[in-house]
Amino acid sequence: MSITPISQRKPIMRLVDVCRTYSTGEGALEVLKGANLELRPGEMVGLVGPSGSGKSTLLHTAGLLESPDSGLVEIDDVDAARMSERERTLTRRKKLGFVYQFHHLLPELNAIDNVAAPLMIDGVNRKIARERASKLLQAMGLSERERHQPGQLSGGEQQRVAIARSLANQPRVLIADEPTGNLDPMTTTAVFQSLFDTARTEQVAVLVATHNLELTTYMDRVLTLKDGQLTDADI
After folding, report:
1. Which residues lie below 8 Å from residue 58, measured CB to CB, with a gap of 6+?
2. Which of 196, 228, 209 is nearest to 6 (CA)?
3. How many CB atoms lie within 10 A of CB 46?
4. Ordered per-residue pLDDT tens for the chain, 235 residues
5. Residue 39 and residue 15: Cα distance in Å, rounded?
6. How far apart are CA 147 and CA 112, in angstroms?
7. Cα–Cα distance for residue pair 177/185, rounded to 1 Å
8. Where are the domains of the chain?
9. CA atoms within 13 A on the CB side of 82
10. Cα 189 to Cα 36: distance, rounded to the nearest angstrom
11. Residue 52: per-residue pLDDT
12. DSSP state of 151
């Protein structure tokens, strides 16, 4: 069976001419000035740029945590501006996953229950939720660590649990902000390989902001945010 190339797949998410300005004591600060982005199933897109260039603002806007001043943010052809606040919350919960530099695992829960928690909060039966969690932890190479508390896991293992948790609800898009920024180089490679493999298997579109240019070898595309706009990175 032939597989459709990523470039020919229909985008899950589109940002079209997105602008975002903040008011500061020194006046208006334009952060995004007509940013455009498309993310497709199974695609991993890197986002690079100097500190202060607006990467976090772009991620927050794509993640429906902030609203643009103008432009479109579409997920599965629905513009977030047309959503009610309740619909935005449901879309974040159902279609978006988030991974940050720090794992934010619940210390009182073991690995499998940390991953299963979002499903159970969403009303999924505990047995089914744990089966899904176990599958994800296995994909992350952590099948032997399911019953361990976060404090019994290494930093890399904790971050892989966090990635598994972000994928528990089968999101359409995963947004990652420096997901390996707190890890050593060897652990970073292992964690990123797990993320890459799982994104392909789950057909999730992944947007990763990173300062680690070595990780761009995993990316299908790398974009740089400069002067409020996204362009192909010269790497």
Report:
1. 15, 18, 32, 35, 37, 47, 209, 225, 230
2. 196
3. 24
4. 557 888 888 999 999 999 999 988 788 888 999 999 999 999 999 999 888 888 999 999 999 999 999 999 999 999 988 889 999 999 998 899 998 877 789 999 999 999 999 999 989 999 999 999 999 999 888 999 999 999 999 988 998 899 899 999 999 999 998 887 777 888 788 888 888 888 888 899 999 998 888 888 888 999 999 889 999 877 6
5. 9
6. 7
7. 17
8. 41-64+85-232
9. 8
10. 29
11. 81
12. G
Residues in the chain: 235
Question: Given its phi and psi angles, is residue 92 left (phi above 0), alpha (psi -120 to 50 degrees) or beta?
Answer: alpha
Tokens of 163: 């990635």
CATH 3.40.910.10 fits 41-64+85-232, yes or no: no
- Looking at residue 212, its pLDDT comes to 80
pTM score, two decimals? 0.89
**pLDDT value of position 1:** 53
Burial class (CB in 10 A: 0-12, 13-18, 19+), 136: buried
C-alpha span between 41 and 220 (Å, rounded):
12
Q: How many Å apart are CA 13 and CA 78, to the nearest integer? A: 9
In Å, what is the CA distance from 230 to each residue of 16, 60, 100?
11, 15, 21
Distance CA 103, CA 225 (A): 25
How far is it, in rounded angstroms, from Cα 134 to Cα 116? 9
Record the tokens describing residue 192, joined without a space: 């990123």
Residue 167 structure tokens? 């994928």
Sequence letter at residue 117 = A
Helices (H), 147-226: 155-166, 185-202
